[in-house]
Amino acid sequence: MGHQAYYIHPDLKLSSFDDKFYKADVLFEHHLLVWFISGETKIVQGDKVHWFGAGDILLFPRNQLVTVINYPKDGLPHKSVVMHLTKSRLTGFYAKNKVDVKQMQPPKFHTFDQHPLLKSCLASLIPYFELKESLPDTIASIKIEEAITILRMIDPNIDHLLANFDEPGKLSLVDFMEQNYMFNMSMDKFGYLTGRSLTTFKRDFKKVFQTTPQKWLMDKRLELAHYQIREKKRKPSEVYLEAGFENLSHFGYAFRKRYGYAPTEIVG
């Protein structure tokens, strides 16, 4: 059946994956508060890997690159409730709740395990999903404001994330690309995250790396995969997603073209 997403409100959805797994490199426009109901989730952020299971609650910051891989487990689909904490809604909230914001560099996602108050807040949305009817904005606003209030009670420092409405500033291309080359993002998004227009991003990239972004990204991803297979003794099927490839056959073709042999032929 694949992926199903049912919205009871533009900012509230129930997401379900029935396939063997679902992988995506994601960049969220808004903060997302996620409650995992069933299944298992693997999140890769930089050189760190995190696993989450049924009952865990996670806050994804906006404008952060992560790889998300969702797996069904124990005969159940991967299912989660997702709440969008949009800029407009947070702006309204903090207009009534003034705070002094400190810069967080870089923002990271927050985990809340199975906190009973957050769980109760998000679980209260399930009957609305079961009714399969749209949720009035007045009720949605109450639910979202409740969640924000609970987050602030659990973690007083969360204001520095939620009340920071700055857009990405101009970053070092070398530092940013070396940390994020494995993410499958459009050139537009790479440009946005480094504080550049697409034209400026391509121009600056060529000046710094003496090649195109597409060629540089392919070379870096293949080098990472080669290292993981040869030095870490991992299988091609275990590394191609983390290296930024969408499917195993395309990875194998690109690898052979670059190195002259298949990834399965590597001898450590």
UniProtKB/TrEMBL annotation:
SMART domains attached to this UniProt entry: HTH_ARAC
A single MF term (Gene Ontology): sequence-specific DNA binding
Alphabetic keyword roster: DNA-binding, Transcription, Transcription regulation
Source organism of the structure: Spirosoma endbachense
PANTHER family per UniProt: ARAC-FAMILY TRANSCRIPTIONAL REGULATOR, HTH-TYPE TRANSCRIPTIONAL REGULATOR EXSA
UniProt key word Transcription: yes
Chain ranges passing through the membrane: none
Location of the HTH araC/xylS-type domain: 171-268
Protein name per the record: Helix-turn-helix domain-containing protein
